[in-house]
Design brief:
The chain is an alpha+beta fold and 540 residues long. It has 16 helices and 20 strands. The protein starts with 11 loop residues before the first strand and ends with a helix. The protein binds flavin-adenine dinucleotide.
C-alpha cells in the first residue's frame, strides 16, 4: 500500500527531518506502510554521513563513513537495496596493519587463513584466537536481536513489566553463568586489559585494536572499550555474516541513493536544500515544521533524524520540553574525537612490506597504529585539547576496489583519523586544518613513502567541519558517544529510549537513538516500527 501527498494544504502524515541513512530508512518503512511521508534535508544531497562526493574533478570519495559493516540484512531485504543498485563486496583482508619494522599482518575473512597468519607471529596466540573468536561470536549472538528491537523497558511495571522480563529471558535463553560474567566484562571492561589477558604478541593485540574503538572516546585501556569486540561481530551485509566488512561500489553514497530510491518507490517525497529551522508545536504536540525560509509545512507526526542535541536543544522551543529532559540532553557526551582526510593521488600507495602477490583489491586498506601504547598516548594528548603529532590513521584506497571512482592515473584514498579533540586548547580548527592534513600525510609517508609526493588533491574534515557541513553536533560521528552509560535503555537519555520523546508526535530516528551509530539502518527501522504501532493504536 502506498500513498502520496496529493491534496495541497492537507498535512503530511509524517515529516522526516534529515535524509541521513536512518531518516531515509524510517521514511521508506513509513511510506511502505501507507503514510504520506515527506523528507526534508538541509544539504543539497541526501545521505548525511553516508555519502559519495566529488573531491576533485572526476574523483569521488566516501567523504565521511567509508566501510559498510553493520548494515542490517533485514533493512537491505525489506527496502530491496540490491534492486535499487546497491552492490557490496567483502573487504578481504578485512584489515591489514603495517608495522614500523616493515612487516604487515592481514586479517582475512576466512578464519583459518587468519589463524595461519597469526601463527607466524605466535602459535599460542593463534590457538587463543580460535577460542576467543568462538566465544565472542557466541556472545554477540545474544546481543544481536536487540539491534532491531527497542531496548529493554526497565521502567515497565505490572503486566507490561512481566512481559518485558519474559522478552529478555527469551533472548538470553541458554546463557550460562560464565557467559553472563564474560558479557558484563565485555560491556564494562577495557579492550587493552582483555587483550593483555589473552594474547602475548604485541602485533596480534594491535590487529584487534585496529578493528575497534573507532569514533569512541577512550584509549584502549579505558573502561567500556572492549564492547567494540562484540559490536563488530554482529552480523551485517546482504547475507548476514558475522564480522562482515564491506566495500560499497560507488562509495557509501550508493547505500543512501538506494534507500532514497526505495523510499520514493514506496511513495515518499524527498526535498533537499530544505533546512528545518524549528519543529512547530501547538497544544503540547508537534504539528509540523518551519523551514529556514519561513515556509510552514504541517504534519501529523515529525520524525527527527538530526542528533539529539540538535533536535531537542535547537529545533524544539525550550518551553515545549521538560527542563529535566533538556538538561539530560545537554549532558550527552559528544565532543567527537575523529577527523577525516580524503586524498586524490597520482600513484597507488606503495606500503612497505605489502606482499607483492597481493591483488589490487587486497591492497585496498591498511591501518596505521603500531601498538596499544601508541593509541593510549594519542588519546591522552587529544583529550588535553591538542592535536597529536603522531596520529592513528585508517586508510582505504577505494579506487583499488572500484576504479570508477577515479579516472585513469588517479587514486582515491580516504583516511580516518582517530583521536583528535573537538575543542582545541589553543587556536581554532580553521587555523589548524592544514596542520592536521600535513600530519596525516606525513604519517602515511612513514609507511608508504611515495604518498606525500603523489597528493594531487586533499580534503581535510576536522571535527568542526563534520559539525558545519554534515550537521553532526560537536562533530560526533555517532550522534553521541557509544559508551555504556549512553547505550541501550539510556540512549539518548534515560526514560526516552523508545524513539518517542516528551513532545507528543515527535520521534527520534537517528544514530542518537538505540542501538546507536554506524551505518546500520537500525534506529530508522526501529523508530518507524514504534511510530506505526502508536499510529495504529491511535487510529483504533
Ligand atoms: C568521518 C566519519 C567516518 C565514519 N565511518 C564509518 C564507517 O566506516 N562505517 C560505519 O558504519 N559508520 C561510520 N561512521 C558513522 C556513520 O556514518 C553515522 O553514525 C551514521 O551515518 C549516522 O546516520 P544517521 O542517519 O543517524 O545520521 P546522519 O547521517 O547524521 O544524518 C542526519 C541528517 O539530518 C540532516 N539534518 C540535520 N539537521 C537538519 C535540519 N535542521 N533540517 C534538515 N536536515 C537536517 C543532516 O544534514 C543529515 O543529512 C562514520 C561517520 C563519520 C562522520
Amino acid at each position: 500500500m502506498t500513498k502520496s501527498h496529493t491534496r495541497p494544504g492537507e498535512p503530511w502524515d509524517a515529516i522526516v527531518v534529515g535524509a541521513g541513512h536512518n531518516g531515509l530508512t524510517a521514511a521508506a518503512y513509513l511510506a511502505k506502510a501507507g503514510l504520506s511521508t515527506l523528507v526534508l534535508e538541509r544539504r543539497s544531497i541526501v545521505g548525511g554521513a553516508c555519502v559519495t562526493e566529488e573531491i576533485a574533478p572526476g574523483c569521488r570519495a566516501s567523504t565521511t563513513s567509508y566501510i559498510a559493516s553493520m548494515l542490517r540484512p533485514e533493512v537491505i531485504r525489506d527496502l530491496d537495496l540490491p534492486g535499487h543498485g546497491l552492490r557490496m563486496v567483502p573487504c578481504d583482508p578485512a584489515l591489514l596493519v603495517p608495522f614500523p619494522d616493515g612487516s604487515v599482518a592481514p586479517w582475512w575473512s576466512d578464519r583459518s587463513r587468519t589463524v595461519e597468519e597469526l601463527s607466524k607471529l605466535s602459535c599460542a596466540d593463534a590457538r587463543t584466537f580460535v577460542r576467543v573468536d568462538d566465544e565472542l561470536k557466541r556472545l554477540a549472538r545474544y546481543l544481536q536481536p536487540f539491534f532491531l528491537e527497542p531496548p529493554p523497558d526497565v521502567g515497565a511495571r505490572g503486566l507490561a513489566g512481566l512481559l518485558e522480563a519474559l522478552r529478555l529471558r527469551k533472548k538470553f535463553r541458554g546463557i550460562s553463568g560464565g557467559e553472563i560474567g564474560r558479557m558484563v566484562s565485555f560491556l564494562t571492561g577495557s579492550l587493552g586489559d582483555f587483550l593483555d589477558r589473552n594474547y602475548e604478541c604485541e602485533k596480534v593485540k594491535t590487529l584487534f585494536l585496529a578493528n575497534n574503538v573507532y569514533g569512541k572516546h577512550g584509549g584502549p585501556y579505558s573502561p567500556g572499550t572492549a564492547l567494540g569486540l562484540l559490536f563488530h561481530l554482529l552480523s551485517g551485509g546482504e547475507h548476514g555474516l558475522q564480522g562482515f566488512f564491506g566495500h560499497v561500489l560507488g562509495g557509501m553514497g550508493a547505500i543512501t541513493q538506494a534507500m532514497a530510491a526505495a523510499a520514493k518507490e514506496f511513495g515518499a517525497e524527498i526535498r533537499t536544500g530544505a533546512p528545518v529551522a524549528r519543529i512547530a508545536v501547538r497544544d503540547g504536540r508537534a504539528r509540523g515544521v518551519v523551514l529556514e525560509n519561513g515556509e510552514e509545512i504541517a504534519g501529523r507526526v515529525v520524525v527527527s533524524n538530526a542528533d539529539p542535541k540538535r533536535t531537542f536543544l535547537s529545533l524544539v522551543e525550550a518551553s515545549a520540553l521538560p527542563e529535566e529532559f533538556r538538561r539530560a540532553v545537554a549532558g550527552i557526551k559528544m565532543d567527537g574525537p575523529c577527523a577525516k582526510v580524503n586524498l586524490v593521488l597520482s600513484e597507488e600507495p606503495r606500503v612497505k612490506g605489502m606482499p607483492p602477490d597481493f591483488t589490487r583489491s587486497q591492497r585496498s586498506l591498511f591501518t596505521l597504529v603500531p601498538s596499544l601504547e601508541f593509541a593510549e598516548r594519542c588519546y591522552n594528548i587529544a583529550r588535553q585539547g591538542e592535536i597529536p603529532e603522531e596520529l592513528w590513521v585508517d586508510c582505504v584506497v577505494a579506487s583499488n576496489v572500484d576504479p570508477t571512482l577515479a579516472p585513469e592515473g588517479r587514486h582515491v584514498m580516504t583516511c580516518f583519523v582517530q583521536y583528535v579533540p573537538y575543542r582545541l586548547k589553543q587556536g581554532s580548527w580553521d587555523e589548524n586544518r592544514e596542520l592536521l592534513g600535513d600530519r596525516v600525510v606525513r604519517k602515511i609517508g612513514e609507511y608508504a613513502p611515495n604518498v606525500p609526493g603523489a597528493v594531487v588533491a586533499r580534503q581535510v574534515l576536522t571535527p568542526l567541519d563534520l559539525e558545519r557541513t554534515y550537521g553532526l553536533t560537536e562533530g560526533n560521528i555517532f550522534h553521541g558517544d557509544l559508551s555504556l552509560e549512553q547505550l541501550f535503555f539510556l540512549r539518548p537519555v534515560a526514560g526516552w529510549a523508545r524513539y518517542r520523546t516528551p513532545l507528543l508526535g515527535l520521534y527520534l530516528c537517528g544514530a542518537g537513538a538505540h542501538p546507536g551509530g554506524g551505518v546500520t539502518g537500525a534506529p530508522g527501522h526501529n523508530a518507524a516500527r514504534q511510530l506505526l504501532r502508536d499510529w495504529r493504536r491511535s487510529a483504533a
